[in-house]
User: Fold this.
Amino acid sequence: MAFTDVETAQVHDAVKMDPTGDDLCKLGLLYSTGQCGVIDYIEAHKWFNLASLMGSDTAKYYRSEVAAEMDGDQLAAALTAAREWLSTRH
Assistant:
């Protein structure tokens, strides 16, 4: 799925405010497909994981797909990043 520059900016803005599971899933897609500059499975997994916590079934599917491409250290880094992001939320 390709996103326009406007859609990409909207997703990034939503994450700074009050994101939905769909917003976080879209951000995961951006990172997993390289639309943020490079493919970053750690960031993708982080956002898919957070979207999953918000009830996104689509994100659960993509999270497992991305996890299959990662090693244990990368998975640990993604989980740590997700916990850190959650700790910054009110």
Remarks:
- The chain is about 70% helix and 0% strand.
- The two ends are 31 Å apart (CA to CA).
- The helical segments are 5-16, 21-32, 41-53, 57-67, 72-87.
